[in-house]
Design goal:
Shape of chain A: elongated
Number of strands of chain B: 0
Order of helices and strands of chain A: HH
Strand content of chain B: under 5%
Keywords (chain A): Membrane, Transmembrane, Transmembrane helix
Helix content of chain B: 55-70%
Oligomer: heterodimer
Helix content of chain A: over 70%
Number of domains of chain B: 2
Distance between the termini of chain B: 50 Å
Largest interface: A-B, 33 and 37 residues
InterPro entries (chain B): Multihaem_cyt_sf, NapC/NirT_cytc_sf
Keywords (chain B): Electron transport, Heme, Iron, Membrane, Metal-binding, Transmembrane, Transmembrane helix, Transport
Protein name (chain B): NapC/NirT cytochrome c N-terminal domain-containing protein
Number of helices of chain B: 13
Structural class of chain A: mainly alpha
Structural class of chain B: mainly alpha
Radius of gyration of chain B: 24 Å
Amino acid sequence: MRQIFIESLFVIVGMAIAIPYMIWPNPYLMFLFVFVAQPCFAVAMLGAIYEIFKDLKSKDVI
Amino acid sequence: METVLVYIAIALVLLEVILLYRLHVNRGSLTAKVKWLALFAIIIVPASTLLFANYHVFESTKKSAECMSCHVMAAIGNDMKGWTEEEHSMTLAARHYRNGWLPEEQECYSCHKDYGFQGTFKAKLDGYRHLMRYVTETYEEPIRYRGEFNYMNCLGCHQNNRSFTEVEEHAPVVTNITGDNPTISCLNCHGRAHPEPSRRTPGHPEFEELKIPVKDAEALRSYLKKFDTELTKK
């Protein structure tokens, strides 16, 4: 669950930038979305996928 | 479409808050329910947000207002849109705008389709570079177009237009532009597309007038009228 906690934090940061950008678009929020929010989402999703992979592997599903 | 995106954004953030809260409440046990919650909270909702926000990036950058939201573009936008009817600019972009030849709200995009975020992968990278340079203020005025403008963008509208094909001089130009190694530009005969860089350079008498934010078009017109009167007096 610790891994999920860290990933949740990345998702919160990403959402905190992406949602205001969609509602009030401007160059500064666009910059934050492109260079901060997207990497945060990518790290969170890749981390979660790795966790799922480890879980399935430990249960001999794959 | 923007309103729909706003509702989607609000729905996504509410959903994410609920999912993260449920995940936090159930953090003690790693049951199937918690795993599903994690899947939605960490992968599905963020992936949907990424999808919609990226759609927003590529759709919104088609709009001239979005181009003008970087104040560095104001000089070009003001030249195109803001001049008074009496003393309007004669640049190619301004003439296109004034005569209603450009689609509403997509004036920039209609000629710069293959540029910045709307173009090829390289053009998109260039768009990211522009964004980085603007936000970090690591650019110098006047800004200049680095690449070669693709005159096929002009032909996209003009080539099959009768008023264009009736002019005999256009035939060799089309052959040249559509060839492998084009050497002719539409601007050779039709003048500048935008104000010359010298007018967009800090210190030039017209620089401050051209830099007034485009949004306040009425104020700009009255200001320019006053400015023109002063010039006439001199």
